[in-house]
Specification:
Number of helices: 15
Shape: globular
Length: 494
């Protein structure tokens, strides 16, 4: 996949980028057809037309990928940490050189606006640089036994062959956030990307190969039979670690399968992020943060602000200014110049968002902006603001996963905390206040794995990403991220 200057074109011919992307399964360091020759189509959400077809993995392909992975597992684990890190670093540099092409590729298959894709290219690539540096910091300890009868040696070793199952909403970052630490720790990995957005992951696998990653260490298996392929791998005793990002119901099912073989798991599941604005907040800053927290990736993010809880004294000011801010959004095909809101990923997602808005309005919500699905082709839904929403209404209970801001009001801090925590999820939460004492108090009271204080974007490769309650198990990113791919071994010495 070669770099091309695509950033400033008004309408871009996707073929220039698509022609450079491998469309086979990535097994044993090369692009290869499925064993049975099957393929499936990848569609442009802006036009509903096919972009290209890719190889469709089946169970035989999954077993082949795992055979190749296991064959090189010991050799890769024994590769010096510095060398593993250098491969990650070279991949980072290749993706940096190809940033425009990668961004366009994500926009083509996901639909979102090019500025969001450029932001993900930078964010997702940073995991490779971060874990390239973490590879040489894998530690252990050596101490005298307290009883004086020996010594304690604690070592960290690769957990073993890993399976990563990634979602469609961040095609690059959800790969690098899992592949980076797995490879840095000395593990081999098979990635099953989503049917909607497999192309970016295939381009990433090719970049790893160009950077010198040995064949077999990383495989990518696009498939239209996700359940069959995943089950074939999870039920194989050679898989020792499963990392999944996706919905909570699917995560529960995978946890059940993993329990049968006591496999290590990392689960980054659903969210229902509250965004609290207190009377003492800087309202203008809160509006900017709210826009970022809601509209990043067109709202198709597990960390997206799903419920806005605004104290009564600033509720109308905040709502009016947020409507003004979201009114400036330009909707259209994500690769067109000036567009800031592309389509949703598919018809099901668009219909789900539309149904959520219809339900909210029927329950008494007031439409302050947008709210109606446009006619024509493409899975578009406009930037929408609803207020007069009960903080416990059905629309606040599940992820909207679209460009819809739902605003409720509260009077007392305790009421806001109670509403914010009244969910089975606990991934991300946000709030704005200029009172330092309140900031510390509220941050500790919110039931969430991540809290943004006067910030609307919290994701960072150097920070641990993950949730509590039904939002998941384990952490990705930060120094904690590589621990998910290491086993602890205690050696007793005389």
């Amino acid at each position: 996949m070669n770099s091309s200057d695509v950033g400033d074109r008004d309408v871009i011919d996707p073929q220039a980028v698509l022609d450079g992307v491998p469309t086979g399964l990535w097994i044993n360091g090369r692009s290869t057809p499925a064993a049975d020759g099957a393929t499936f189509e990848v569609y442009d959400p802006a036009t509903e037309e096919s972009l290209t077809s890719v190889a469709d993995a089946g169970v035989a392909d999954a077993r082949s990928a795992l055979d190749h992975a296991v064959a090189v597992s010991d050799e890769w684990a024994a590769t010096p940490a510095r060398e593993r890190g250098e491969i990650l670093r070279r991949t980072f540099e290749l993706l940096t050189d190809r940033a425009d092409d990668i961004a366009l590729l994500m926009t083509l298959e996901l639909g979102r606006a090019l500025p969001d894709s450029r932001a993900e290219t930078k964010y997702g690539n940073e995991f490779l640089r971060w874990f390239a540096e973490e590879a040489v910091r894998i530690g252990g300890r050596f101490t005298q036994a307290p009883a004086g009868n020996g010594r304690i040696l604690v070592a960290q070793q690769p957990v073993g062959p890993c399976l990563a199952i990634t979602p469609w909403n961040f095609p690059l970052a959800m790969g690098t956030r899992k592949i980076g630490p797995a490879l840095a720790a000395g593990n081999v990995m098979i990635v099953k990307p989503p049917r909607e957005t497999p192309l970016t992951m295939l381009a990433l696998a090719e970049a790893f190969a160009e950077a010198g990653l040995p064949p077999g260490v990383l495989s990518v298996l696009p498939t239209s039979s996700s359940g069959e392929v995943s089950t074939a791998l999870i039920t194989d005793d050679r898989i020792r670690k499963i990392s999944f990002t996706g919905s909570t119901p699917v995560g529960r099912n995978l946890l059940g399968q993993a329990a049968e073989r006591v496999q290590r798991t990392s689960m980054e599941l659903g969210g229902n992020a509250p965004f609290l604005v207190f009377d003492d907040a800087d309202v203008d800053a809160a509006v900017e943060g709210a826009f970022a927290a809601k509209m990043r990736n067109g709202g198709e993010a597990c960390t997206a602000a799903n419920r806005f809880l605004v104290q009564s004294g600033v509720a109308e000011e905040f709502t009016t200014k947020l409507v003004e801010k979201m009114s400036d959004v330009v909707m259209g095909p994500g690769y067109k110049d000036g567009v800031t809101l592309g389509p949703l990923v598919n018809a099901d997602q668009r219909d789900k968002v539309a149904a959520a808005v219809e339900q909210a309005v029927s329950d008494g919500a007031r439409v302050r902006l947008g709210g109606e699905r446009p006619d024509g082709r493409g899975f578009f839904f406009p930037a929408t603001v609803l207020d007069n929403v009960d903080p416990y209404a059905p629309v606040t209970r599940e992820e909207i996963f679209g460009p819809v801001a739902v605003i409720s009001t509260f009077d007392a801090e305790d009421d806001a905390i109670a509403a914010a925590n009244s969910t089975e999820y606990g991934l991300a939460a946000y709030f704005y206040s200029r009172d330092l004492e309140r900031c510390m108090r509220v941050a500790s009271r919110l039931d969430s794995g991540m809290v943004g204080v006067n910030r609307g974007v919290i994701s960072d490769a150097a920070a641990p990403f993950g949730g509590i309650k039904q939002s998941g198990i384990g952490r990705e990113g930060g120094s904690e991220g590589i621990d998910e791919y290491l086993s602890v071994k205690y050696i007793a010495l005389t």
